[in-house]
Amino acid sequence: MEIERVKGKIMEGQPGFPRQYGPSRSDHQPGIPFFPQETARDFVLIFLLTALLFFLSAFVTPFLGPARSPQISELIVPDWYLLFSWGLLKVADVFPQFVIGAGTPLKTDFNAAFWGDLLSGIPVIFLLILPFIDRGREARPAKSPVRSAFGVAFLLAWIFTASLYSIREVVAQRWQTPNGSPLINDTAMKWFFVIPPVLVGLTSYIGLRRLGYQPMRKWLFPYVAGLTAIVVVQAAGIFLIPGWLGPEVRPYVIQLGIFLLVLIVPMLVASVAVFAVPESQARKWVVRSGVAAFVVFGALVVFFMNSGRPNHVAFTWVLSVLYPNMNTLVLMPMFAMLTAYMGVRRPYSTYEYLLNECYQCGKCHTVCPVTKVEDDALGGLNLVYNTFKKQHDGVPLWTCLACDACSAVCPLDIQYSDYILEERAKVHARMAADGGGKE
Amino acid sequence: MPYADLTRVVLETDQRQVPRSHAEKYELKTIWYWYPLYCLGGISFVAFVILTITGILLGFFYVPDGRLQLDTATSLPTNGAYLSMLVIMNNVPFGFIIRGMHHWSAHVMIAAVFLHMCRVYFTGAYKKPRELNWLLGVILMLVTIMFGYSGYLLPANALSEGAANIGINMTRASPVIGDQLATLLFGDINTLSGVYILRWYWIHVFILPLVGTGLMVLHMALVWLQGVAEPH
Question: What pTM does this model have?
Answer without folding.
Answer: 0.84
